Amino acid sequence: MMTRALRLGVNIDHVATVRNARGGAMPDPVRAAVLAEEAGADGITAHLREDRRHISDADIEGLMAALNGPLNFEMAATEEMQKIALRHKPHAVCIVPEKREERTTEGGLEVAREENQLAHYIAPLREAGCRVSIFIAADRRQIEAAHRIGAEVIELHTGAYCDAYAEGRMDACDEELRKLTDMAAFADDLGLEVHAGHGLTYDCVGPVAALPQVQELNIGHFIVGEAIFRGLTPAISEMRRIMEEARS
Predict the structure, then answer these.
(1) For residue 49, is it left (φ>0), alpha (ψ between -120 and 50) or beta?
(2) How many other CB atoms are found less than 10 A from the CB of residue 83?
């Protein structure tokens, strides 16, 4: 297989988390997004949650006005979020599961069970020119359903792999990586563009970055945390270096 370029999408949600912990306007996630672009990010991801716990509506307005590159707008499959996406028409929308009590997105979207509803939900988004991505587990049934409903992209949830790596459960880590490997190839064979993300760090990103079918990694929490110590530009540069080394 010909080696494909691997893009890095930087999620700036947790810059807003820090801002909201104190109130006020700083640190500004829009400023972080512009700096991330300048540092080499290929795109910016922002998740506007229903409870607005981090990213706000004003942040989305600011991002759409300030960014030169693409915005990946993560959102739950609700009528409110669909209206917001159709108003802004970002480059991409990524449909994710969302529970108010969770700290972060837990697991992938259940597409197969809600296939008909999701097909109707994403149709207006596609008609508006948004690339539709579905955030799902590395599961054949979910990938097939995502393909049937007309999604152009899937983002494989890497959380189980990253958790197993962090906890030193290497047999489980290897098994989760095998699933990601097999399902990335399966989705690619169906004609879906394959992205991956959730929980990736400098230590564990390499094997996922090395998967030839994966065309984009979306990484946020770790990069924002590492920026406290390194600065945002060096944190992004190091992630890109590791990704590119793994891919080569």
Answers:
(1) beta
(2) 11
Active site residues: 47, 74, 198
Res. 1: pLDDT tops 90: no
What is the CATH number for 127?
3.20.20.70
What is the rounded end-to-end Cα distance, in angstroms, of the chain?
13
Q: Could you write out the DSSP letters of every residue in 77-136?
A: S-HHHHHHHHHH--SEEEE----TT-SS--S---TGGGHHHHHHHHHHHHHTTPEEEEEE
25-64 pLDDT, tens per residue?
A: 999 999 999 999 999 999 999 999 999 999 999 999 999 9
d(CA 29, CA 23) in angstroms, rounded, equals 13
Residue 26 lies in a domain: yes
AA identity, residue 86: L
Tell me the pLDDT tens digit for each residue of 96-135. Answer: 997 654 444 456 899 999 999 999 999 999 999 999 999 9
Report DSSP state, residue 204: T
CA distance 68 to 35: 11
What whole-number distance in Å separates Cα of residue 236 and Cα of residue 213? 22
Q: Is residue 2 part of a domain?
A: no
Do the domain assignments include residue 247?
no
